[in-house]
Amino acid sequence: MSVENSKVIDTISINQKNVVVLTISDHLEWDDENEHLVLLQDKINAYLEVIESGEIYESYPDAKGKGFQIGIAFKFSPNDTAIDFLEKVEEILAQSGYELDYYHLDNA
Predict the structure, then answer these.
(1) Number of H helices, E strands in the chain
(2) Which Pfam families does UniProt cross-reference here (predicted)?
(3) Residue 100, Cβ density class (10 Å: 0-12 exposed, 13-18 middle, ≥19 buried)
(4) What is the pLDDT of residues 5-29, one digit of tens each?
(5) Mean of all residue pLDDT scores within the chain
(6) Domains identified in the chain, total number
(7) Does the residue 75 lie in any domain?
């Protein structure tokens, strides 16, 4: 389970707002920024495909009737370019009615 495998949902949960959260586990450093962003974009797109195709309801029936959020748990803090990318992703997801949440795992 990691950002490198776009075919796997790393974690699925329901948060306190009753929203289904599909979390990406990102353990990569930012030394190869472009490759890292491509992997992250691919994983986000794969999660969106699972949601929009309805596949999520087959594998996680508790998602029915709930909103969706894509979460990203970063082992290493995102750099400025990554933050810009994430802000754009957040805007695009919001247009489709989805949320984005990302955070740095301290001492991970």
Answers:
(1) 3, 4
(2) DUF6572
(3) middle
(4) 988 999 999 999 999 999 999 999 9
(5) 95
(6) 1
(7) yes
